[in-house]
Amino acid sequence: MDLVDGMRVFVASVETGSFSGAATRLGISPKLASKYMAELEARLGAQLLHRTTRRLGLTVAGEQLMAQVPDWLDQLDEMQNSLREARRGLSGTIRISAAVTHGEMVLAPLLRRFREPHPDLIIDLRLSDRFVDLAGEGIDLAIRIGRLDDSALVARKLGRTRLMLVAAPGYLARAGRPGSPDDLARHICIRDTNMRGDGAWPLFENEKPARVPVSGPFLVNSARVVRDLAIEGEGIALCPDYAVQASIETGRLEQVLPQACGPQLDIHAVHLPQRRMARRTRALLDFLARNLAASLSSAPEEGARD
Asked: What pairs with residue 39 in β-bridges?
């Protein structure tokens, strides 16, 4: 066992709370992670971790080592990366988590731009609308929209998105145009089940908040599909601006009740706080902070799904 590998397994085991979490982060098997840990303890002549059936805990010796090793590993990585990247640019793998529609329409094009000058860089983009455990799944950076619940994560605000009421011109010609939020009760509404709450739409009319009950035959857990159904004339939708702005500009959708917009939602990048960020991840975070806000209003329009 290489001493550096053993130290990496030790730090990853402490930060994730398990050998399986460390194995996922480092790309090795849990059995090998456990073996490296045992060999490190034998080499140092001290027990570093308490093993229980539920979680790993630090011994006194482990606490002393943990206070120094992460910075040492970071310095080693920085030195190695600086030498490599001076010749080849950024390298290694960045694991990124994002919501499906935002990831497909906004984040993926940005990641292509970011990676273009770095041929040795691997982007591992994992799209899911479920809550993702960053430590357990080895995620370097997660892009989250809306309220942040996990205060243990380090967050950096990247921009904002606004929810807009939209409908196809054909639907409005057929069903009429609502004059107030209360009128939505008599319209067919396409509901995005990713929105938190009781199913009512959170709207602001003249800066006064209200929750408006809506109904309709389509409940969908994808903002993109909600948009596509609205384009096909299936009803009124409440969608993020990045999903519908291009369709409004081409006339396939019209904004409904512009005086009664949905809430603005913050977009954050979040990451684990335990260690200094790798250079490649820090470079990506800075890139997103510079470019994401501008990209929200320029997401490309795609053809409606059949």
From this structure: none
CB under 8 Å to 291, separation ≥6 — which residues? 110, 113
Asked whether residue 304 carries a pLDDT value surpassing 50, the answer given is no
Query: What's the CATH number for 3-67?
Result: 1.10.10.10
In the block, which residue shows the tokens 């030498």?
A: 83
pTM of whole model > 0.70?
Answer: no
Task: Determine the straight-line distance between the first and last CA of the chain, rounded to whole angstroms.
Answer: 55
CA torsion through residues 302, 201, 209, 292, sign: negative
What is the 3-state secondary structure of the chain?
A: CCHHHHHHHHHHHHHHCCHHHHHHHHCCCHHHHHHHHHHHHHHHCCCCEEECCCCEEECHHHHHHHCCHHHHHHHHHHHHHHHHHHHHCCCEEEEEEECHHHHHHHHHHHHHHHHCCCCCEEEEEEECCCCCCHHHHCCCEEEEECCCCCCCCEEEEEEEEEEEEEECHHHHHHHCCCCCHHHHHHCCEEEECCCCCCCCEEEEECCEEEEECCCCCCEECCHHHHHHHHHCCCCEEEEEHHHHHHHHHCCCCEECCCCEECCEEEEEEEECCCCCCCHHHHHHHHHHHHHHHHHHCCCCCCCCCC
Using CA atoms in the order 109, 114, 118, 120, what is the torsion angle rounded to 10 degrees?
-60
Query: How far, in Å, CA of 163 to CA of 161, rounded?
Result: 7
CATH of 88-160+266-296 among 3.10.20.90, 3.40.190.10, 3.40.50.1220, 3.40.50.300: 3.40.190.10
Q: What is the pLDDT of residue 51?
A: 81
pLDDT on residue 93: 93
